[in-house]
Amino acid sequence: MSTLILITSSPTSVHAWHALGLAQALQLKNQSFRVFFYQDGVAAANALQWVPDDQRNLTAEWQKLAIRLPVCVSAALSRGITDAENAQRHNIQQHNLAQGFELVGLGELADAVQASERLIQF
Fold first, then answer.
1. Under DSSP, is residue 107 helix (H, G, I), strand (E, B) or coil?
2. Which domain does 71 fall in, by range?
3. 26-65: b (≥16 Cβ within 10 Å) or e
4. d(CA 37, CA 48)
5. Straight-line distance from the first to the last Cα atom of the chain, in angstroms, rounded to the nearest whole number
6. Contacts for 111 with CB less than 8 Å, ≥ 6 apart
7. Domain with 98 in it: what CATH number?
């Protein structure tokens, strides 16, 4: 069964961590799944987000999974997160998209919803 994990919760939310836990469990069991970061969930893709030494870094944990990490470009840009290409296009001085994350359009979410047998939103 293919699963789409839709992450809309901020990285400071316990729900965002539950999304990661589900992804880790599905990967461990070799189950088919995809993820998509949308709304406040896009903050997980911010390379400039600081995390105290005594806490786990959600961004780094997603990167460890070595899977495709698509992020809604509109939601990211509206929250101050951009890659080099969009920074240049929109005359933004810096880019801060974390390594391994990829800015994509909402068409990707539509395709993922259509291709998945179940959708779980966190």
1. helix
2. 3-121
3. beeeeeebbbbbbbbbbbbbbeebeeeeeeebbbebbbee
4. 17
5. 19
6. none
7. 3.40.1260.10
Residue 108 burial (10 A CB sphere; 0-12, 13-18, 19+): middle
Does residue 37 come out as left (phi exceeding 0), alpha (psi in the -120 to 50 range) or beta? beta
Between CA 44 and CA 55 the distance in angstroms is 14
pLDDT tens for each residue of the chain, 122 residues long: 899 999 999 999 999 999 999 999 999 999 999 999 999 999 999 999 999 999 899 999 999 999 999 999 999 999 999 999 999 999 999 999 999 999 999 999 999 999 999 999 99
Tokens of 21: 């836990």
AA identity, residue 12: T
Hey, which residues are catalytic here? 72
Number of domains in the chain: 1
